[in-house]
Design a protein that fits this description.
The chain is α/β, with parallel strands linked by helices. It has a domain of 219 residues: Rossmann fold (3-Layer(aba) Sandwich). 43% of the residues lie in helices and 15% in strands. Strands 3-4-14-9-10-13 form a six-stranded mixed beta sheet, sandwiched between helices. A five-stranded parallel beta sheet has the order 8-5-6-7-15, sandwiched between helices. It has a two-stranded antiparallel ribbon with strand order 1-2. Its EC number is 4.2.3.1. One of its GO terms (molecular function) is threonine synthase activity. Keywords: Amino-acid biosynthesis, Lyase, Pyridoxal phosphate, Threonine biosynthesis.
Length: 466
């Protein structure tokens, strides 16, 4: 398996190098040169397998010869052994048609753990026995940061610098990052939005002088290995609901398009996906792009679902590239235009290709709260605001009533206690394994959201290339 950049100018790489690199040298994102194909027999053979064994079957074509099956099994066993539920990502039925796929049973109570617990072990595996030191630079709207920090804290050969927008993540999200006091963990609260933080990270990767000094790597969903790990739970859920004989729809609350792109990959591999519902909040660039072809940024509006308060969805580039004939030069030109004007129209091929598989919905705060109340009162299930946005969209989008709809439950409701209480009248307690979170010491630095301030901070603390 080889990987190519969406912008066509970076070298093709194998799985190991793609994992350690993150963003492509030409500013693009890596994707496989071709999608692995699973037959109906291959999918049927996943029935009854554990999550770890499902992961091995689904990911094996992507890792190629860089990991043996035994090595991949050992890494997955260690990664998913830290989850609080034996099924890792259990399905929960809400009514005759709607299901939740609970992705929050990992150590930091969010879906990011499913990929990042594994990614941390990939890093460790690929760095062992080398003199390479990784400098991980990431931006987070809340959950990526804590999951990535948990995955690499204390590991040799790695430093992590995580940027989050000051005051725009929940107290639980912030504390899950800033109470990890390992010497290789550096938390930075920037004065600005998540989009500002994400732009700073991309600028560091694209700065030849800065990237030449350090071996930079990424944990955001720009890293292909992270998306690959998320493909697994689409197969795991669909098989339990009747695939390959039965189609399944998925509703995905998303801002950066990574989680739902993993569903697209599963469909390209042969999973019978009826529809992927892209559920956004009022920061609705993805809904506008998919419904009218308008991919233009606006002002980020802070909401009770902060992980979705995004106007630039990095992974959308991967979809546009695949839908438009995988022309790297054309994609580079399209993205240069967007980066200069902050506006872009999807081509006819991109719009028509997306319409075949995707639906979308913009969920207002009132509908989000209504979905939280419905889940609590009618289904006895307390959900967080992001999951509620997915559920609201799942219940509104017009689909064949015979098709089950799985909403991805992306975070534990205790991560957003104020929003849950406002909607339902009760607070969701933190699970016992993180129950002392508010008693732990915090450590982080506040910086202006400028390139000079952030790169100077990192340069003073990072380990240069040998």
């Amino acid at each position: 398996m080889r990987y190519q950049s969406t912008r066509g100018a970076a070298p093709t790489l194998g799985f190991r190098d793609v994992t350690l690199t993150g963003l492509a040298a030409d500013g693009g994102l890596y994707v496989p040169e071709s999608w692995p194909a699973f037959s109906t027999d291959d999918i049927a053979a996943l029935r009854g397998l554990s999550y770890v064994e499902t992961a091995i079957r689904v990911m094996a074509p992507f890792v190629g010869e860089d990991l043996t099956e035994e090595e991949l099994r050992a890494l997955c066993t260690r990664a998913y052994g830290r989850f609080a539920h034996a099924a890792v990502t259990p399905l929960v039925q809400l009514d005759e048609r709607n299901w939740l796929l609970e992705l929050f049973h990992g150590p930091t109570l969010a879906f990011k753990d499913v990929a990042l617990q594994l990614l941390g072990r990939f890093f460790e595996k690929f760095l062992t026995g080398t003199d390479t030191h990784l400098t991980i630079v990431g931006a987070t709207s809340g959950d990526t940061g804590s999951a990535a920090i948990d995955a690499v804290a204390g590991r040799t050969g790695v430093d992590i610098f995580m940027l989050h927008p000051k005051g725009r993540v929940s107290d639980v999200q912030r504390r899950q990052m800033t109470t990890v006091l390992a010497p290789n963990v550096h938390n930075i609260a920037i004065e600005g939005s998540f989009d500002d933080a994400q732009a700073l990270v991309k600028a560091m990767f694209n700065d030849p002088a800065f990237s030449a000094r350090f071996r930079l790597s990424a944990v955001n969903s720009i890293n292909w290995a992270r998306l690959m790990a998320q493909v697994v739970y689409y197969f795991y859920a669909a098989v339990r609901l009747g695939a390959p004989e039965r189609k399944v729809a998925f509703s995905v609350p998303t801002g950066n398009f990574g989680d739902v792109f993993a569903g697209y990959v599963a469909a390209k591999m042969g999973l019978p996906v009826e529809k992927l519902i892209v559920a956004t909040n009022v920061n609705d660039i993805l809904h506008r792009a998919l419904s009218s072809g308008d991919y233009s940024t606006g002002t980020v509006t802070p909401t009770a679902a902060p992980s979705m308060d995004i106007q630039v969805s990095s992974n959308f580039e991967r979809l546009l590239f695949d839908l438009a004939g995988r022309d790297g030069n054309a994609m580079a030109g399209q993205m240069r235009g967007f980066e200069s004007s902050r506006a872009m129209r999807l081509t006819n091929a991109q719009r028509e290709g997306a319409a075949a598989l995707f639906a979308s919905d913009r969920v207002e705060p009132g509908h989000m709260n209504e979905a939280m109340r419905w889940a609590a009162s009618e289904a006895g299930n307390v959900i967080d605001p992001h999951t509620a946005i997915g559920l609201a969209a799942a219940r509104r989008v017009d689909l064949d009533p015979a098709v089950p709809v799985v909403t991805l439950a992306t975070a534990h409701p205790a991560k957003f206690p104020d929003a849950v209480e406002r909607a339902t009248g009760s607070r969701a307690p933190l699970p016992g394994r993180v129950g002392d979170l508010f008693e732990r010491q915090e450590r982080y630095d506040v910086l202006p959201g400028t390139y000079a301030a952030v790169t100077e901070y990192i340069a003073e603390r990072a380990v240069p290339k040998a």
